[in-house]
Design goal:
The chain has twelve helices and no strands. The protein is mostly helical. Helix 2 packs across helix 6.
């Protein structure tokens, strides 16, 4: 072996050892942040979502990033964190009331109310026939309804109990999230530029990567979650107007049901409508049915395209699967993290398509 070859081998070995040591150190350093994965992720999501608001507040504060970041954190705490804890308490109490009401009606035999024959002759005839068919299985039906309502109540109460038992941990993570959020608002632009400089890609490709990611993030965050928020608000409003039991609980479920495949919000408002008809509240049932079909369900078709229009060509099927997969892997955080990871994957594939394959972009603004 020549001296040059030996020197080359030595350089390779030294490089490998150095890279290995550096990799171990980096992994060890990153592991320090693993316990704070959730607060860091939520802080990044909130910073991305509210950054346009931060920029406006910063202008009002005459360019003071410190003051603008502090104001944003206070606003987020007042209008998001505090209401979330309040909502958890309300949901727990309303689940108990719904469970007790259903059990009471079923056990007393008042769950199915036969319509007045003189006022609703056809409806009376149809309900009577249906009840006669169910007579042979009456006990099983009652038991099934009670068991189903009991399981739902126990599940939600169990989750609520776990949350309140870990209240100190949740408060601690919320505080950590606010601290991280403050620095993301104040120094986020500098952090982003530093991250760009670390990417082993030409600046043009980095900017394209950032632009694609931003477009898809905007579509998934603003489009889907604003739609769900509006649908939840619409559901809470009509259920409160109709004096429905637990309007906050069912309205919140309507918002979450936006992400249910195929069925959507009908997974909540349809059973609620059937419940009203079954208990004899025909006018309320008709109002809820018409409002849900004309207003709540149509929000998907009118508002969602407005929110997403011009942002991305991401197929709704992949978006849907990313949400379901995110929920399965990350829990509640997956509602946001799933689409974000899909957006990142999409941006990487687009960069690969353009740079290595030399083909034109699939996504345009």
């Amino acid at each position: 072996m020549s001296p040059n070859q030996a020197a080359d081998i030595k350089k390779v070995v030294v490089s490998l050892v150095t890279a290995g040591i550096a990799g171990v150190i980096l992994l060890a350093g990153l592991s320090l942040f693993v316990p704070f994965f959730e607060p860091i992720t939520w802080a990044i999501i909130l910073a991305l979502f509210f950054y346009p608001v931060f920029k406006r507040i910063k202008k009002v504060c005459r360019g003071s990033g410190n003051l603008a970041a502090l104001i944003m954190c206070i606003l987020i705490m007042l209008f998001i964190i505090v209401p979330v804890f309040t909502l958890l308490g309300s949901l727990t109490g309303e689940v108990v009331r719904v469970y007790e009401q259903v059990q009471e009606k079923v056990q007393s035999g008042e769950f199915w109310v036969i319509p007045d024959k003189s006022k609703y002759p056809r409806l009376h005839k149809g309900v009577t026939r249906g009840l006669k068919l169910m007579d042979t299985h009456e006990q099983k039906i009652k038991e099934s309804i009670i068991d189903f309502s009991k399981k739902i109540g126990e599940f939600v109460l169990k989750k609520a109990t776990v949350i309140f038992k870990n209240l100190a941990n949740i408060v601690f993570k919320a505080a950590i999230m606010l601290v991280i959020l403050y620095y993301l608002f104040r120094d986020g632009q500098h952090m982003l530029e530093t991250f760009k400089d670390l990417l082993p890609l030409p600046r043009q490709d980095v900017e394209r990567f950032t632009s694609l990611t931003h477009d898809v993030l905007s579509a998934t965050l603003y489009g889907n979650f604003l739609t769900a928020f509006i649908q939840a608000g619409a559901g809470i409003f009509i259920l409160w107007i109709l004096d429905f039991t637990a309007p906050i609980f069912w309205g919140t479920l309507i918002g979450l049901a936006t992400f249910v495949p195929m069925i959507g919000t009908a997974a909540v408002w349809l059973p609620a409508t059937i419940f009203l008809f079954a208990t004899g509240d025909y006018l309320k049932g008709a109002i809820l049915l018409m409002y849900s079909v004309v207003v709540i369900s149509q929000i998907d078709y009118f508002l969602r395209p407005i929110f997403i229009s011009g942002k991305t060509q991401l197929h709704s099927l992949f978006l849907l699967l990313s949400i379901i997969g995110g929920l399965n892997v990350f829990g509640l955080l997956g509602l946001v993290l799933g689409p974000i990871l899909l957006a990142l994957c999409m941006a990487i594939l687009e960069t690969y398509r353009m740079n290595l394959l030399g083909r034109s972009a699939l996504i345009t603004k």
